[in-house]
Amino acid sequence: MREPRFKRAFDFVLASLALAISAPLWVIVALAIKLDDGGPVLYRQRRWGRYKCPIHIHKFRTMVTDAERCFGNRQAEDNDPRITRVGRFLRATRLDEMPQILSIWKGEMSWVGPRALPINEIQINEANGHVPDDQIPGFNLRCRVLPGLTGLAQTYAPRDVPRLHKFRYDALYIRNRSLWLDVKLIALSVWITLRGKSRHRRVTSRARTLRHPAVSQ
């Protein structure tokens, strides 16, 4: 599936600028994590990339050390006991996702696109949360494009909405992709980060009228 014109160049230039500008913030976040519990600063995880090729992404660690090994590959929830004190702030402001800018710079991700899903993560908000990702309608479509740091689903959908509904937002984005749409979603994500209220999302009238498009594989 063809990318919008200049999308890769836009991603690379913006990622280079973001890495340079955010460098001091990386140091502050790393110190906060270390002072909180002394554990590792970064967390590495396998996620779905384009064409279903797994990629490894890095995030600032927001959960207790070895959370996945001790508790399993399970979706986070409100008041999750695995999340650290610093981790709650990082998640609310999305600062935990800053290391993924490196994945954008390398071309494994884009600034905007479907979220890079943890592979077959157990879902706490679905009737059968053990169903593999590739059995959810819309999964194949979303894997035809690069995963993104932000997007329609990440911005407008509630954090705990089932995968089927998230994939509908992803389908809507894929069918309406443009560089201008990317710019608007990035700006909105920055505003959410500055407010520190990523969990409080409001669906606009435009998104509401298009929130459930037909999804194909």
Question: Can you give a write-up of this model?
Answer:
With 217 residues, the chain is mostly helical. The protein is 44% helix and 9% strand. The protein starts with 6 loop residues before the first helix and ends in an 8-residue tail after the last helix.
Labels describing this entry:
single chain, about 220 residues, mainly alpha, two-stranded parallel ribbon, 9 helices, globular
Brief sketch in words of this structure:
With 217 residues, the protein is mainly α. The chain has helices at 7-37, 67-71, 85-93, 100-106, 139-142, 152-156, 163-175, 179-195, 205-209; strands at residues 42-48, 54-60, 110-112, 148-150. The chain has one domain.
Strand and helix map with partners:
Blueprint: H1 7-37, E1 42-48, E2 54-60, H2 67-71, H3 85-93, H4 100-106, E3 110-112, H5 139-142, E4 148-150, H6 152-156, H7 163-175, H8 179-195, H9 205-209
Parallel strand pairs: 3-4
Antiparallel strand pairs: 1-2
Helix pairs in contact: 1-3, 1-4
Instruction: Give the number of helices.
Output: 9
The structural domain count equals: 1
Write the H/E string, N to C.
HEEHHHEHEHHHH
- Mean pLDDT across all amino acids: 86
Determine the structural class based on helices, strands and strand pairing: mainly alpha
Helix residue percentage: 40-55%
Output the radius of gyration: 17 Å
Distance between the termini: 14 Å
**How many DSSP-defined strands?**
4
| Spatial strand sequence of the major β-sheet | 1-2
Tell me the overall shape.
Answer: globular
What percent strand?
A: 5-15%
Please describe the biggest sheet, giving its number of strands, its sense, and whether it closes into a barrel. Answer: 2 strands, antiparallel
